[in-house]
Amino acid sequence: MVIILIIYGLILIGIGIYDYFHVNSFKDYIAAGKKRSFFPVYMSLMATMIGASVTIGMIDKVQTIGIYGIWWFIVAGIGLFLQSKLLSQKIWDLDAMTLADVAEKVIGKQGRLLIASIIVLAWTGIIAAQFLALTKLLAFILQCEVSNKLLIMVAYFIIGYIIIGGQISVVRSDTINCVIIFIGFIITFFYLYLLQDNFSKIFQDIPEKSFTTLDFIYQFFIVGSTYFLGPDVLSRNLISKNAKTAKNVAFWSSITFFLFGTIIVSIGLWGKTFLTPQANMLIYMLEHSFPIVLSALLSFALLATILSSVDTCLINMSSIFVHDILGSKKIIHLRISVAIFGTISLCIAIFQQDIISLLINTYSCYSPGIVCPLFIAIVCHKKYDIHKKIWLFSIFIGSVLGFASVYLHQPILALIGMALSAIFGIASFYNRPKLS
User: Fold this and answer.
1) β partners of residue 36
2) What whole-number distance in Å separates Cα of residue 182 and Cα of residue 42?
3) Where are the alpha helices (DSSP H) in 57-206?
4) CB 149: neighbour CB atoms within 10 A?
5) What is the rounded radius of gyration, in angstroms, for the C-alpha atoms of the chain?
6) Measured between alpha carbons, how far is 428 from 91 in angstroms, rounded to an integer?
7) Distance CA 345, CA 412 (A)
8) How far apart are CA 382 and CA 263, in angstroms?
9) Residue range 68-106, pLDDT digits in tens
């Protein structure tokens, strides 16, 4: 298995080196030239969304909330479907390079700087979660202890690979990784359920109080909105060759992601029913529940999921920082930024060991402030005038309450923040005359 791991790592580095000599412009590095067709964009989006949070993290979460884990994938599918119908065409037509660049085109420089700053601050948590998950997986593969030394080695391998090739390498490697992901998890699902005689036992224990009404509402608005208008998901729109490609990718991804979610939750339910619930359940299943060939296949599928998610997050966050905050269009600045933000995320991973908590904290900081006002601005672009101070305040109030919800451990504050940001976002356009 170690030999296969080395070969896999060399393939990724080889892709990066190959693309290093084919990155001819800033647009190539940041947006893969904005000329990718349906299949590579679709595969890249799926590989990006299927990260540690919806594999290792969600299977752990299923141990406490049971079948309700499927709600995450339902709201994600709804978000992607709505993106396809309401946003994909409008965003692609803006010809933006990043999500913050979208804000500048519909609001102005102040909107770009504010949104870019929030994304950069919040998204370090997602990258940290992926670093942590990948370290735990590699510790299992290499049969060694999870340690900060291994975490550092993992982080800087990923950082180095991204620095070399940029977004083109990310898209190219995502296609390979997505094939491995689908094969690994589909075979695992059939292995578990074809060998199990009493399926009904798995669905008998449905927890009554582990997933509250507030949890349903919170995930629908806070989690679902990141799939509707999140920087990583929308980044795949921005590399598409045309609006039709962007719309089709979002639509078919909404269906595929939900179907994949049923596989993930089913694997988690099998572990909850027939094994002793514990942290890192999927890693435990790899070691104790599968034959060695399937264990190796699923290990590399997991490796592919995490790599595909973290590389997209890191390149996008660095692109937003360089393009939208620094205002630079130099590739060297992007590469330096990848190294800096990768290191910051590494430090967060060292001090925070809960994957799902890192992800939820990120969503709680991002969604309440940005999603509603930016969606309103995109829809109203070139149709109505805008009161910029009110619009900027809508971002501010939502983001402040989102951050407060994380540090005060009060999820209701994030929902209140989202509601207020929507109200002020609408008010910024309310009763304004149409532009001629």
Assistant:
1) 240
2) 13
3) 58-65, 70-82, 88-93, 99-106, 109-142, 148-194
4) 11
5) 21
6) 20
7) 27
8) 43
9) 889 999 999 999 999 999 999 999 898 888 888 899 998
